[in-house]
Specification:
By secondary structure, this protein is mainly alpha-helical. It is 68% helix and 5% strand. A hairpin with a 6-residue loop joins β3 and β4. α3 packs antiparallel against α6, α4 runs antiparallel to α11 and α7 crosses α9.
């Protein structure tokens, strides 16, 4: 709790979920009421286990996406709100399919790096200057297209009942079937932000009906999203009702999640470096101190390599998404 700043309840729940998937055991010391948790493996192996779990269990179950696609098509009857739902699901499919494929391809290089103790000799895919400009132009084009589409969509007071029921089913399934490595907070953020993206223009009341989340949870996620700049809030003309609209495209939202992972890995590297510096300042030459420094240095290298893999993942994702776009795929 001291290291993360999270509440005791959040830490306890996270550890319980991770113990279901990872070789983490609880250890108790005689005369000490505290619970200690031990990862049974090499320090950098923890990151490899995380990567493997994300390959074994996809972030979003693709069977759910295919099932929902069939149901939306069956119920659409040419209604525009169903068309938007269909477009959204069709955007979900290639993105999560690609990210799962690329993660799977990274397992062996990461494992090889752990076994050899060298992470810097492996091939890493970096975007060159020309590609970075192409990526920037591509994402800007997607944003303009998305915002232009949203600008033509007015707020609808009442959505068809079948549409609402399908969204209930979809978001409830997301909440229960999201990769268990993710916290419930992540699931809540996903549901609220994706509902805003799906509707294009909506209210908190509509979000509540679609996601079945508590009002307080929705308010918190919306406030965070507005602060991050991915959602904007306006007022309904002649009313005090707040309207929420996305400010970015679907692709930008998805790629932003990859960026946040890289930021997390960077933050972990800084924290580990601080621990290394603090340990060295003790000037202790004990075996325990040397063991701790070896542990921290290996973990630092592992996080550095993981961050490079994350950046590579983004490069490959953008390249593949651009290929789909050039073939005529409609992004929202």
């Amino acid at each position: 709790m001291e290291l993360t700043g999270y509440s005791q309840a959040t830490v306890s729940l996270t550890i319980q979920k991770m113990q279901l998937l990872m070789p983490i055991r609880t250890k108790k010391k005689v005369g000490d009421r505290k619970h200690y948790y031990v990862y049974e493996g090499p320090p950098a192996g923890f990151l490899l286990d995380l990567l493997k779990r994300r390959v074994e269990v996809q972030d979003i179950d693709m069977k759910l996406i295919h099932t929902m696609l069939d149901k939306v098509i069956e119920n659409s009857n040419g209604n525009l709100v169903f068309k938007r739902f269909l477009d959204y699901l069709n955007n979900m499919r290639p993105f999560y399919g690609l990210i799962h494929k690329l993660r799977k391809e990274n397992v062996e290089p990461f494992k090889r790096g752990l076994e050899t103790g060298s992470f810097c000799n492996l091939d890493q895919r970096e975007a060159n200057e020309l590609e970075r400009r192409i990526f920037t132009d591509f994402l800007a084009k997607l944003r303009i297209t998305s915002l232009n589409i949203d600008a033509t969509r007015s707020f609808e007071e009442d959505a068809p009942r079948d549409y609402l029921l399908l969204k209930n089913e979809y978001f409830t399934s997301i909440k229960t079937n999201l990769n268990p490595l993710y916290s419930q907070t992540i699931a809540n953020q996903f549901m609220v932000v994706h509902n805003v993206l799906l509707d294009g223009c909506t209210t908190q009341k509509r979000i509540e009906k679609a996601t079945l989340l508590p009002r307080s949870t929705i308010s918190e996620v919306l406030a965070q999203s507005v602060k991050r700049g991915i959602i904007k809030v306006t007022k309904k003309e002649g009313s005090r009702t707040k309207l929420y609209q996305p400010t970015i495209s679907f692709a930008e939202l998805m790629l932003g999640n990859v960026d946040r992972l890289a930021e997390y890995e960077s933050a972990m590297m800084i924290r580990i470096s601080e621990f290394i510096s603090m340990t060295k300042k003790t000037r202790s030459e004990s075996g325990e101190t040397k063991k701790s420094l070896d542990f921290l240095n290996i973990l630092l290298k592992a996080y550095s390599f993981a961050q490079r893999l994350t950046k590579e993942l983004k490069v490959e994702l953008v390249l593949k998404l651009k290929e789909e776009y050039d073939r005529g795929f409609d992004f929202i």
